[in-house]
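Render this sequence as a predicted structure.
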Amino acid sequence: MLGGQPALLASDTFLVVGCPFIVALVPSPCITVTWTAPATQVQVNGQPPLLQTSVGLCNSALGAPQGMALVTGAQTKVMAQ
């Protein structure tokens, strides 16, 4: 937990909303996010956490890239025990 909230991990799944992409007049909304640049020196439950600098690539059901997702409102300091 970070600040009482679960840490965001590169392996987490998210519901994508507000992505009205249309390809060739066919709705092609974002349904998945693949994250790049998670932490490399820290793990949470064996998984790398996302950082404020992590960027996600939103993909359609066919795997077509639809745009970027960004981490916002991130906690900036953590102490490990």
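Summary. The longest strand covers residues 65-70. The mean pLDDT is 80.
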